[in-house]
Known about the structure:
Layout: H1 2-10, E1 15-26, E2 36-46, E3 50-59, E4 72-83
Antiparallel strand pairs: 1-4, 2-3, 3-4
Amino acid sequence: xxxxxxxxxxxxxxxxxxxxxxxxxxxxxxxxxxxxxxxxxxxxxxxxxxxxxxxxxxxxxxxxxxxxxxxxxxxxxxxxxxxxxxxxx
Length: 89
């Protein structure tokens, strides 16, 4: 998912790779079978060449309800960098 978020930020003119998995935090264990909701965004970027992508996995709330703090299962941050497809720089 971090790759998809980075691709949407940079466009298709560059190649984006994962430079580091900065942080993966298991906040609450999954104790039941349920639908999951993945969300993420670019939280820090230096132009279009490198960025931090933060994501979280939450139990999907039932229709008409909001997610509760205890429904957040996992949060993570990745550093992504963009490379020129021809030169790999």
